[in-house]
Each structure stands twice: as structure tokens, then as C-alpha cells.
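Weekly modeling sync, notes
Attendees: S.R. (lead), two postdocs, one rotation student

Agenda item 3: backlog of single-chain predictions. S.R. asked that every request posted to the team notebook include the full sequence so nobody has to chase files. The rotation student volunteered to paste the first one in as an example of the format we agreed on. Action items at the bottom.

Example entry:
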Amino acid sequence: MALIELKDVSVTKKQTKILDMSASSISIEAGDKIGIIGANGAGKTTLIKVILNLIEYEGDVHRNIQAQDVGVQMQNNEFSDLMKVKEIISLVCNCSIRDQRIQDDLSRFQLHPLLNKKLSHLSGGEKQRLTIFLVMFNDPKLLIFDEITSGLDFESREAMIQFIQTVTNHKTLLIVSHYFTEIEKLANKILMLHKGQILAYGRIDDLFSEYQIYSSISIDKEAPFPPSDLRYVKTTDKKVLITKNKEEEERLVELLRKQMISFAYKPKDIETLYTFIRDHQPKGDVS
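Predicted structure, as returned to the notebook:
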């Protein structure tokens, strides 16, 4: 049984639809790890608010899960910077810091050395570990993370991703992020949103197969290329050539070398998949 099912959902604000899933449905199954991607204003946070029943909407949402079984981390918290970590833990968990349930997880979340520190003295990664600890304290079945690594430098982000992989291994996870590499490491499904509409939803490997994306090869935007039979997308300064299989990839690389055109190679990746679908695929039924 699905934990959450959405069908024909829409949200209207000031007579404008900011989320439009008409003729579309989404099923969130136990064990899914779903990356929600899209540009700013695509409807990502609005969708999360619909799932949590925090906003008025039209359509059908079936929740086969209790509110207490959902753990949510949003982009901002409301704790005072003057509070100590141990005070925040006691307040949110509604028990003493000496409670065995807390003690059991302090080491796992690397929080013991931080207990007497004020929130203002924590690094970005330490604050996020505290946040995840609080979200997971009651062992929720579904976790929702909204830009969990926002504001972290590269090394801290990579460490946080590894940490999330470890502590959410057996959980159902919805993660909103604008970092494509983060989604690749944490998700097994993706939900693509664009201007409030669903572009695609499904298992990552299935979407790569459906859209025949084997690898991507970037060249300068002004290069007199590619051949007319090759698919590509444009970024700010590059053309990203998309191959369907190994044979097409080898043929393309050989052509580029013969014409002495510099290129950069990447195996199939979510950014290319998203950009191709966004630029070429009309909205459709993803049920």
C-alpha cells in the first residue's frame, strides 16, 4: 500500500495556479527515496505543503500514514541562537537529555561534543546534524528534507550526504534540492517540476531508458556542431550532446577528435536528463 497518493491536485494563489497536477497522479511507496527537482518557483515547496496538508488545494490526496510518522525539515528553524544544543533537544524531544533514547543516538549523530554549545556557535553541518537528529527522534516512517545541504561548502555537503545515506537507509525519503549530484546520491526516483507542472516522475534508471540517455558530451556553444541526427541541449555557454548508446557515443567522440573540437565527457546524469525533458517534453500524464 502506498503511504501517500496524489491525483489531480492543484493549488491556486491570487487566481493563478502555482501547482497544476491535473490529469496526473503520484504514488509514494514505502522505501521510496524521491528527489524533487525544479527551478525556483517550480512548485517544490508547494507540493510538500500539500502532502503535509498545510495549504488549501483541489484534488485528491490519500494519506495512509499518521502525522506522527512524518518527520519534516524545512529550510528555516525558529530556535533562538542563544539556546544550547542540549536545551533544544530537551525542548523538542520533550524529555531529559539523560533519557536513554536520546543517549543512544547522540553518538550516532556526533552530538555529544556539542551539547553545551549555543546554536550560534555551531557550523552549518553541525546545525544540520542536530536538525536531522530532532526530525528522526520519534522514528518516523517518512522523512522530508527541504534543501538540507543549503549553505554548506562542498566538503561539508559531501559529508552531510554520506551521513544522510547512513541514517536514512531504511526510511522513505522525500528530498527537495537544487543540487543534481545530491539527488543522484540520495534518490532512487525523481519528480521533476517546471512552472508548477509535472514533467516526469519515476525511477531514475527507468527515465534514463525511456528518454534514451546514455552519456552527455559538452562542447563550446559556438562550435559548428552537432550532426543533424544528434540530440542536444544548450546551457549558458555549452552545447550538451546526448548519446543513446555506446555505439553512438564512440561515433561522436571520433567525429569530435577528427574535427579537433574540445569536449568534456560525462556518463548519464540527472542534470542532462532534466534539461532535456524540460526543453523537449510537453506536460503529460505520469500516472
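Discussion: group reviewed the output briefly. Residues 2-76+102-207 form a domain with the Rossmann fold fold (CATH 3.40.50.300).
Action items: rotation student to repeat for the remaining queue; S.R. to check formatting next week.
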